What does this fold into?
Amino acid sequence: MWHCSNYVKFPPESLGTTDFVEKGTGAVVFRTCYEERHRVVFQMGTSNAVRALTAAQLVCKDVAAIDINMGCPKSFSISGGMGAALLAKPELIHDILTTLKRNLDTSVTCKIRLLKSSQDTVELARRIEKTGVSALAVHGRRVADRPRDPAKWSEIADVVAALSIPVIANGDVFEYEDFHRIKSATGASSVMVARGALWNASIFCSSCKLPWEDVKREYIRKSILWDNDIKRTKHTLKEMIMHYSSLELSEGKSVNKSDTLGDLAKLYGEEKYFQLVAKNRS
It folds into this structure.
C-alpha cells in the first residue's frame, strides 16, 4: 500500500507520460499517459479505507477505474492485511468500497478469490454488489490452491448467475481460444488474464500467437522506448524465461546480472535502438 504523502504527480516532458514518483528518490511508482486515461485500471492493495481513498484521489483523474485487490494470496500482501486477507473481513471490504464510491467520480471495481464454498463466495459477492461497485472480478481458485490447480470455472458461473453487475472471469486463460471458453462456461461479461499475458502478450491476437522470442524482443524495445523501470522489466523477462526456458541457463543468468536497460539492450542485440531512443530523447 502506498504511503500517499510520499508520492507526487510529475509529467516528464521527454516521454509525454504522467508519472507518480517517490519523494526523495524520484523512483517511478506508476507511469501512464493521457491517451490511456480511459483504458487503464489502477489496482491497489489496501487494508484501510482512508488510505485507499487518499491513494485513489492521487490517480483517479488519470485512469478509467480504481480496483481493489482482494485476491492476492502472497505473504507480503496478506501480512499487511491486504489482498486475500480481506476475504475474511466483509465489514472492512464494505468500508473500503463504500468510502471510495462516496468520494470518487471514477468507477470502482474489485477482485476476489473463491471462498471455502460456492455459497460463501456468492454471499460475499452479493455484499460487494450492494456497495455500488461497477464490476467484480472473480479468480477461480481458493487461497490455498496452487497455480497448477485447475481454476473452478463452474463456481465463477455461480457468482455470475447471482449478480446483476458485470462479472469478470479469471483463471487458466493461456490461449486466445480460452477467452471464448471461459466466457461460455461462466457467462461472464469479460475476462481477465494474468500469467498467459505475462508469458506471451500476443495471446490477445485472434489470428496468431507470436513466438515468445519475438514478443520478448518487442518487450525490450517497448521498455527502452518508455524508460521502463529496470526491476519491473527484469521481473517480466524472468517470468517469460522461467515459463519457456530456465533462469539457470546463460540468458537467465545474464538478465539477473543486468543493472540497466542499456545492459538488456546489449544482451538482446538492441544497442542501436537504445542509442537512437536516447539520442531522440535528449
Q: What stands out?
A: The longest helix spans residues 230-244. The chain has a mean pLDDT of 94. The longest strand covers residues 107-114. The CA atoms of residues 27 and 238 lie 21 Å apart.
